[in-house]
Amino acid sequence: MELVSFADKVIKDSLEKGVSKFIICPFGERGMRVKNVLNIQFDIQEYLIVDNGLSIYNKNVLAVRDLKDNDVSDSVILLTSKNADIYNELTVYIDESNIVSLVDDKSEKKNKVGRFSYGPLVDNYEPLIDSIGSFCSFAPGCCVVGNHLLDAVSTHEFLFEFTNCKELQQDKEYTWESINKKVVIGNDVWFGQNVVVTNGARIGNGVIAGAGSIITKDIPDYAVVVGNPARIIRYRFNEKQIAALNKLAWWDWPIEKIKMCYKDFYDIDKFIKRYGADYE
After folding, report:
1. Mind listing the pLDDT tens digit for each residue in 62-85?
2. Shared domain check, 224 and 148
């Protein structure tokens, strides 16, 4: 079922059961569409907006952990993401029966995403993303954009796609997929606000991209990039440290091991010496 229709049905059903408090979580593109349904169609103001990433920048948006300070026992959470980590975190503060997923697995596409990654590239389906690793952080406004044909007579999409020009539909030589490579994003990647990725770039582990960066080519592990086009200004660690971290692949460790090693994450040398036997 299409998102807006599904949201309409869920809200109606909830109102008939006497529910009047609705929480939207998270607040990406889907969340904004659900807010419109709630506000415009039903003239209801949402009780809370919850989004771990956006809460850093917007004081009116709560992180999931802030639910403990609010009475949510008689609320319905309109869940707009397939991210299992978000769902699991919500169940700590509200009964599962009060969480309604608006994302239908049968009708909605999804990207392959690792554990604990969050932000718009996770919350919204991006057809040009192949995969996203674990522990990635994407600030609001981040996106992946495709290309059009550069050397044809026209750059318009009618040469490879007919979504906006169905009258011209016919057999075509190119498809959207054939002119656009998919982006692969590693683990522990941090994108500042409004980072744009193009040209099927591959983003290595541990990469940081400053706010507003336009990434047009592959970025190596643990590079820090800024600008348009994005350029490397430094690396987070030296070559030996980077090699050791990639070998350790801590992002794949069981949760209990990560919790046990938590304090060691603050010191790179201590961390590697303690858990990477081959590091010198």
Report:
1. 999 999 999 999 999 999 988 878
2. yes
Beta bridge partners of 191: 138, 209
Q: Are residues 93 and 77 in the same domain?
A: yes
* Number of Cβ atoms within 10 Å of the Cβ of 147: 14
Judgement on whether residues 57 and 86 belong to the same structural domain of the protein: yes
Q: Which long-range contacts (CB under 8 A, 24 or more apart) does 117-123 make?
A: 117/83, 118/26, 118/52, 118/53, 118/83, 118/85, 118/86, 119/53, 119/191, 120/28, 120/29, 120/53, 121/185, 121/191, 122/81, 122/83, 123/26, 123/28, 123/29, 123/30, 123/31, 123/80, 123/81, 123/83
Please indicate, yes or no, whether residues 150 and 217 belong to a single structural domain of this protein: yes
137 and 124 in a single domain? The answer is yes
Sign of CA dihedral 175, 176, 180, 181: negative
pLDDT in tens, 192-247: 999 999 988 999 999 999 999 999 999 999 999 999 999 999 999 999 999 999 99
Catalytic residue selected from 115, 148, 181, 202: 148
Give phi and psi for 121, each to the nearest 5: -70, -15
Domain that holds residue 254: 239-275
Q: 156 an active-site residue?
A: no
Quick one: 83 and 118 in the same domain? no
Asked if the structure places residue 219 within a domain, the reply is yes
For the chain, the domain total comes to 3
Q: For residue 78, what pLDDT is reported?
A: 96
226 and 131, same structural domain? yes
* pTM for the predicted model, two decimal places: 0.61
3-state helix, strand, coil in the chain (%, to 5): 30, 20, 50
